[in-house]
Amino acid sequence: MSAESLLVWACWVVVVVVWIVGALYNARRAPHARRRTFGYARWVIVAIPAWLVVRHVVGVERLSFRQEPDAIRVAGLTLLVVATAFTLWARVVLGTMWSSHPVAKERHVLRTDGPYRVTRHPIYTGLLGMLLGTAIASDFGVWLYVFVPVVVFFELRIRDEERLMSEAFPTAYEAYRRRVPQLIPGLRLLSSSGS
Predict the structure, then answer these.
(1) What is the pTM assigned to this prediction?
(2) By C-alpha distance, which of 2, 4, 17 is closest to 133?
(3) Fewest CB atoms less than 10 Å from the CB: which of 11, 100, 128, 139?
(4) Strand pairing partners for 36?
(5) 101 φ/ψ angles, rounded to the nearest 5 degrees
(6) Backbone dihedral region of 107: left (phi > 0), alpha (psi from -120 to 50 degrees) or beta?
(7) What is the pLDDT along the chain (195 residues), one digit of tens a residue?
(8) In angstroms, rounded to a whole number, what is the distance separating the alpha carbons of residues 48 and 167?
(9) Which H or E run contains 111?
């Protein structure tokens, strides 16, 4: 296994281990849920079979770039490492407010500090950065097929989460939404500098 592959695997394994340990910790320590939403679940049932059909029809290998320059691979690995650190930071800051599905908990705290000052959904931002970095470092191929449905899935979850947060924190969340971009860091700066 190459050093690049080891780094890719190490980043993903670290995130998975942190998620499992965090989920086990939260199962014992997290406040109980006040409100849950499962609106995105029906889309997953449709998206996964559609993704499998499209993947089979188009073919993964045809999108693989075998002659990618080393500088591009290094850029992908750099993005992967930075996005991994950002994802872990966001997960740690969220603490016991994290859940595997959109939920408002008892004594829920709206996080707007740390990575939540950069984007409203920094875990999703980080995971998408990890996927994109992995794709760039790994000749694209199958990772492009993973990236697109994950973007769609996250966007559906974000809609549910934002609706839930707007109900739980009507005034504070609206102000937060106006101040902080949804997924792409610096997007507000770009749009305000163009006007």
Answers:
(1) 0.78
(2) 4
(3) 100
(4) 103
(5) -140, 155
(6) left
(7) 788 889 999 999 999 999 888 888 877 776 555 444 444 445 555 555 665 666 666 665 555 555 667 888 899 999 999 999 999 999 999 877 777 666 665 667 788 899 999 999 999 999 999 999 998 888 776 777 778 888 888 888 888 889 888 888 889 999 999 999 998 887 655 544 444
(8) 30
(9) none
Evaluate whether 51 touches 101 at the Cβ level (below 8 Å). Answer: no
Q: Which residues pair with 33 in a beta bridge?
A: 105
- Between CA 73 and CA 65 the distance in angstroms is 11
Domains by residue range for the chain, with CATH: 3-193 (1.20.120.1630)
**Where would I find the H helices in the chain?**
3-29, 41-58, 70-94, 122-137, 142-168, 170-179, 187-193
Q: Which SS3 state, helix, strand or coil, does residue 109 take?
A: coil
Give the span between the Cα atoms of 7 and 83, in whole angstroms. Answer: 13
